[in-house]
């Protein structure tokens, strides 16, 4: 087996997958590995939905199971999906681009194992997970296929790949199934290349290897920034045309996902501050009332309660007018 298809998608992905997998024949001659972003507590119904749309067998991947032609191995909720020679790996390694499962780890692993035999497919989704991994597939001789952005419910993910990767095919979903059949039935026309150290290290980390022991400090330099998830030091990965970061724990971020995580952190901090101030105001008002009932001077406590509520109102107003941080240019009037 020298061919594999790896598919990544996010928002709008179920609709896209139903159309794409439904166009593949039952005798599709290669395994398919699939990552779709989902919540950790997802009810686990993705295979059920997709099995009703395709002649292929769709199932959640089990750690160590063999890769099989005509089978779609889906990353389970809250687990990364990677491949090794002849089999799949399922891992609770650190999140990448704020997700587990994430697309980039799968794409890097198929590039490492299959080289020119890898076909990476990126469908509808937000932000840019998959761009880095698709670039690795291309650099190791594989083929990059991207959904035509205007055809996607959420075009950001495909557009990011087009902007940063030498994509081979940009097609609407209606043309993608027949294209994949042709690509898989065509033998690779390149010889495998040596896998760069950075790819080797970044394949080990989502398998839950210790990032330092895996070689993170050989491929990245410390930055001044902290990981939004674990608050450890972020290291900036060397090389490549795009800025990316990993922390000592292993969490990984593109610039887009890092800015999104920081924006979420600001929101959380503002809401926590608002809650704390309003709770303080309620407590101070209650204490002032109790003091007044006992004939004590409650003016200072009442004044502090009013001040806490004033600050809470200011933060509430800020929350209401604040726009999320983004790396994308906002349209006029936003």
Radius of gyration: 24 Å
Q: What does the average pLDDT come to?
A: 94
Order of helices and strands: EHEHEEEEHEHEHEHHHHEEEEHH
Q: In the CATH hierarchy, what is the superfamily of the largest domain?
A: Methylesterase CheB, C-terminal domain
Any idea what the CATH architecture of the largest domain is?
A: 3-Layer(aba) Sandwich
Based on helices, strands and strand pairing, what is the structural class? alpha/beta
For the biggest β-sheet, the strand order reads: 3-4-2-1-7-8-9
* Helix content, binned percent: 40-55%
* Straight-line N-to-C gap: 51 Å
CATH top level of the largest domain is: Alpha Beta
Any idea how many domains? Answer: 2
Sheet with most strands: 7 strands, parallel
DSSP, total strands: 13
Question: Which stretches of 5+ consecutive residues score pLDDT under 50?
Answer: none
What would you call the shape? Answer: elongated
Can you give me a brief rundown of this structure?
This protein is an alpha/beta fold.
């Amino acid at each position: 087996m020298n061919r594999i298809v790896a598919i990544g998608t996010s928002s709008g992905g179920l609709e896209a997958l139903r159309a794409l997998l439904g166009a593949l024949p039952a005798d599709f001659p290669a395994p398919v590995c699939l990552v779709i972003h989902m919540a950790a507590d997802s009810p686990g119904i993705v295979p059920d939905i997709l099995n009703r749309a395709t002649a292929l067998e769709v199932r959640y991947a089990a750690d160590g199971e063999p890769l099989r032609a005509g089978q779609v191995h889906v990353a389970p909720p809250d687990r990364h999906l990677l491949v090794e020679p002849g089999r799949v790996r399922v891992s609770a390694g650190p999140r990448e681009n704020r997700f587990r499962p994430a697309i980039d780890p799968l794409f890097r692993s198929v590039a490492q194992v299959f080289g020119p035999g890898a076909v990476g497919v990126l469908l509808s989704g937000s932000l840019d997970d998959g761009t880095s991994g698709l670039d690795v597939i291309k650099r190791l001789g594989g083929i990059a296929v991207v959904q035509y952005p205007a055809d996607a419910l959420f075009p950001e993910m495909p557009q990011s790949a087009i902007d940063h990767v030498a994509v081979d095919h940009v097609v609407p979903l209606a043309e993608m199934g027949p294209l994949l059949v042709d690509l898989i039935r065509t033998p690779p026309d390149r010889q495998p290349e040596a896998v760069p150290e950075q790819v080797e290290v970044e394949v080990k980390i989502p398998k839950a290897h210790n990032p330092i022991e895996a070689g993170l400090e050989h491929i990245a330099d410390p930055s001044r920034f902290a990981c939004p998830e674990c608050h450890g030091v972020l290291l900036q990965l060397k090389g490549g045309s795009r800025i990316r970061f990993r922390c000592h724990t292993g969490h990984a971020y593109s610039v887009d996902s890092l800015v999104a995580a920081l924006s979420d952190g600001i929101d959380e901090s503002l809401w926590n501050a608002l809650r704390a101030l309003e709770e303080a105001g309620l407590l101070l008002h209650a204490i002032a009332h109790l003091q007044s009932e006992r004939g004590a001077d409650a003016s200072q406590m009442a004044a502090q309660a009013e001040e806490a509520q004033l600050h809470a109102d200011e933060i509430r107003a800020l929350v209401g007018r604040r726009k999320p941080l983004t790396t994308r240019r906002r349209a006029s009037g936003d």
